[in-house]
DNA sequence: TCAAAAGTGTTGATACTACACCCATGG
DNA sequence: CCATGGGTGTAGTATCAACACTTTTGA
């Protein structure tokens, strides 16, 4: 390490793109910035600096748990963003991570912390083209995101769209017991288009080992749907 | 940046996984290490340290061009590896990049630099399971790779296998004018299994805008194949 | 004219979509 | 018994893999 100390080093950080689905729409967790004028936006993803000698995952845990209050959830590395101009305060290279959680879990943290918000996510581009994404405020207007976080958000959506079909990642958005309709809403929110119910049900049931629990949804009007759960041996 | 200078920082570096296909087998470019005892292996991917204020891509260019002599080729970020123990000399977080090139291009660099080699790549795991990969020496025995480079190599192959079907990335392994058979060999090398010719031809021609050039392959015995080229407007 | 590889046509199986339909429940 | 969403059956279509076949060249 003596050899490396000679080089002037960029700072290394992580940013957490925490996502959930509600009302057939993707939402992301954002943290209010005091220094909006300095960092070029009012809102940003929760982040943390990587410390020397500690795993990158330690910074991820710090950003996700302490700053945003998240517990155990699905975490996946997205990409690393290294433009020297991305942070006006200095050269900060950031490893972006995507966190997937049921909406209620993120909502709890938002109500507990007034500096957090859960903003609906909008993408302009169709399919898997790629590009930046927007987060909407309570008034329906796009929020000003700091740094390159609009681009990171777009990359997160692109990653999700690319793997939602074949991977079990969609189950990260629903509680351990869920209706098939809830999973369908997750897929519709991510893909940004409606799906046909019978086709979706069948694909889901033969692609993933799901068990009907026998218990039914409660609280809804009309016929209650059956609750399913994933095979506990399966991982993301 | 004054705020960030307080934190002790890991060193940030890049590693280049340069890949090509020959003899229906994937090959990777490796650099001989003088310090094999220190870094835990005789061979490693070419790398470079990221300098403060310079884009990460600048380090990629340095690692790819100066150390390995590569020119313009397809580059794609793989992932970032941050285990504090991955480099015995100190905490070095590395952003791994995949470089795709025609085999002849890498072979030229290897013959020009005796510290480089182009090693066949072997994976134990089937399909898209994932896991570490091995690079073979001239004697057919696995080479000792430094750091976590066996895991990085495995991740590179996994990425390739995941996107070779729908993405045009396979064309990065062949020259601008190529036979369809050459592209098929690339796909077979990446997937690790034989493909049927008619199905492959049709899928390739449907999915990508390819133009027959009218000129034929030369130098082969038997019937020469037609040379195709990609639509110049298309990008990776 | 023969061997080997280029390139094409056809068929059978599979997967997916779309539509129609039945079921169960609260009011 | 009616409106509404849960859940299933069926048929048409597009996709894909395997096989057989024809074509073209060098020796």
From TrEMBL, chains A, B:
MF terms in GO: catalytic activity
Segments of this protein annotated with the region Disordered: 210-236
Entries under CDD domains matching the protein: NUDIX_NadM_like (cd18873)
Protein name, UniProt field: Bifunctional nicotinamide mononucleotide adenylyltransferase/ADP-ribose pyrophosphatase
Entry-linked PANTHER family: ADP-RIBOSE PYROPHOSPHATASE, SLR1690 PROTEIN
NrtR DNA-binding winged helix domain segment(s): 170-229
Segments forming domain Nudix hydrolase: 12-98
Organism lineage string: Bacteria, Pseudomonadati, Pseudomonadota, Alphaproteobacteria, Rhodobacterales
Compositional bias segments (type: Basic and acidic residues): 226-236
Superkingdom of origin organism: Bacteria
